[in-house]
Amino acid sequence: MNLKKIIIIGVAVVGLGGAGGAYFLGYLPGSSASAASTESEAEAEVEYDEEGNPIIPGRPIYMPINPPFVVNFTHLGTLRYLQVSLSVMYNDQRIIDRVSSELPAIRNDLILLLSDQTFEKLSSTAGKKELRSEMIAAINQQVLTQEDRDIHGEVYITNFVMQ
What we know:
- This protein is of the alpha+beta class.
- It is built from six helices and five strands, in the order ααββββααααβ.
- The protein is 51% helix and 25% strand.
- The strands form two sheets. Strands 3-4-5 form a three-stranded antiparallel β-sheet. Strands 1-2 form a two-stranded antiparallel sheet.
């Protein structure tokens, strides 16, 4: 009796395994293999960046700006320091490439902008949001051409330390 149960369970497992394998290999209607072939055709049209990641039009592309910015400013006669790490985001790889090639000019503009801030502005959430708007405007001025004015980017503060 015990042997019959083992045989029945073994046949059921082999049958289910075979049916699952046939489904995934495309031998049954509605299988995932037909969907996979459609996906591979669509994947062939996708461009890839230098790291091998797919570039999907309209999808956000993030680029960290390294090294972090370290600037000093004076508050109530005391020298203060600000360290800020940033990432930029655009939906167009061409603009990300321009950010990379214009990085020295962008860093210069952002260092001047950051060092001109007040302690009160940097201490508030509203001030940080305003600063983000000013930073993306400075970056856009360096990388966007007249034809690119409809492209919108964003700058994100990924680290913020003030002493």
